[in-house]
Amino acid sequence: MKRTHWCGELRREHVGLEVVVNGWVHALRKVGRIVFLVVRDRSGLVQAVVTPKNPNYSLVSELSLESVVAIKGVVRLRPPNQVNPEMPTGEIEIDVKEVQVLNPAKPLPLPIFDKELMKTTSETFRLKYRYLDLRRFEMLRNLTVRAKFITALREFFNANGFIEVETPYLARSTPEGARDFLVPSRLYPGKFYSLTQSPQLFKQLLMIAGFERYYQVARCFRDEDPRADRQPEFTQFDVEMSFVTAEDVMNIVEEAMRYAFKKVFNVDLENPFPKIKYREAMDKYGIDKPDLRFELFLETVTEHVRGLIPLREGDVARALRFNFSEELTKNVEGLIKEIIPSDGKVKYVYVLRGSNDVVTNEVGLAGDLIKVFNLGIGEGLVVTSGEYIKASEAIGNLRNSLGKLLGLADKNTYKFAWVVDFPLFELDEEGRLTSMHHPFTSPKLEEIPKLDTNPLEVTAQAYDLILNGYEVGGGSIRINKRELQEKILAILGLSKDEMLDRYGFLLEALEYGAPPHGGIALGLDRLVAIALGYDNIREVIAFPKTKEMTDPMTGAPSKPPEEYLREIKWIKVLTD
RNA sequence: GCCGCGGUAGUAUAGCCCGGCCCAGUAUGCGGGCCUGUCGAGCCCGUGACCCGGGUUCAAAUCCCGGCCGCGGCGCCA
């Protein structure tokens, strides 16, 4: 019995046809002596009917849910009063002639087609039986949409003269940035590959190779703690172009987004996307990836609170005020406590003025703050104090989450924007200069002289693409001259020897006719997740890891057998 | 590494604050039965659980301590 039709495509026009469908037993309803069997495949559902006259009657009536079957039968119209308007195939049903049970199924551990129960089923459990979880139409849709989105981007970039090139995942470790996943080298005991954090250097080398326009759907690996929007391995849609300015890159990426969003979601995006300067973003929103779906601005209130809140030399105070409805008081308070770091670097006060009471973490201050800020009933105020960036980020982060909690952010709006004019460097915990983007980012050429005098004031030719409070892309114009690249690496504290050891291949390549070039990496998981309305990228990844970086299904990570460790010359394992 | 929340049948949830009325209730699933037009089928009967370890107490699902696991966040994420 060979499949002739998909379940979900059968319609009135197929009436009278003998068809064969394959699929899973989605539902089995025995009403009196009639058995209604709903068969499911990727395309949808169709009802089949068996009565006691049918030689397959007992076989069908004893089927278990989710068994795999092949059904041969004749499509017929349902009696007029039995049409199910909720079902695309609801006008017809299959009068069963022959049934093959290809594989009976045991009862499922996961109630996959009980929407109510699945809403609350723990994610660990879904991940343990991910192959069942993925049978749900919602997951099928998510991954289908993801595939369509990738296809749309490929179409767009192919049509614009880009070449898709694969680059290695096993590469040389470069200690900057995130922690690497290391892979021991069997042939060179004591040496390791690292899984690429991104194709950054390879794509630059492709530009030097003269490919001019490249893209790739690239897996990236970073050994840092996951979050709802971060996984240890994730997918970037990676793009690089030669002979372009930052504007050129941003323009083509905007076009790509407009094309893909229209094609896949039928959404018209703004044209052009707004651009915000980094400093303006920090000042107005306190964060470099503000959610622009709502207007709510930070204020600098250092002078208003001087004398009330203890300020160290150079500290600033930043404030966010907002209206909230009283039943959310607890949630707002919880959010503030959760988001603002309690590491002592930032101090914070909040005052939530209800109609009968005031909720605050500083009883002694609340009265004064209400007076100073003229805080009305139903208004909340959060003041952070400390070093400008820290105080701003703490409250900016809060702003993005508060927008969701207070319903300020419209779920059906996609608010893209570019954040530009990032500083080239920032200071790390130890007060050393580090690259804000990465060490291959070009400074604005006219600011090169400032590299020696005020490196922190040098602006990068870098740009982030943001969407609804998430960073969904980041890129820059790269350095294409050896001299400048060496200078940057030197400023970052690398000795000549270290430079040559780690980046010698790049530095040399820059001398053999490296064109000006730049590009971007788009966070594909985030883009698709946000477009579908999820905060959690695991919903658009077929087999994601948990927050603790495990896979409950396969049991990864696992302990390799001793012989294997011996073979790869890596038998010393330190635990803890 | 840190903070918060959580862990009760296959799944989900009630009970936990305020210990005894709980050999743990409910929904769904599963097993059996009834029903010839169901489609979240319906009705009847049955089945099955307190994360692990220690402590307090006459008595622990409930209180305390430790652990494990998960989710969210902070740090981290060039």
Automatic annotation (TrEMBL):
Compartments it resides in: Cytoplasm
Source organism (scientific name): Zestosphaera tikiterensis
Residues the entry annotates as binding L-aspartate: 176, 222, 437, 478
GO cellular component, one term: cytoplasm
Enzyme class: ligase
Transmembrane parts of this sequence: none
Major localisation: cytoplasm
SUBUNIT field: Homodimer.
Protein name: Aspartate--tRNA ligase
Region of interest: Aspartate: 200-203
InterPro entries: Aa-tRNA-synt_II, aa-tRNA-synth_II, aa-tRNA-synth_II/BPL/LPL, Asp-tRNA-ligase_1, Asp-tRNA-ligase_1_N, Asp/Asn-tRNA-synth_IIb, AspRS_core, GAD-like_sf
Gene name in the database record: aspS
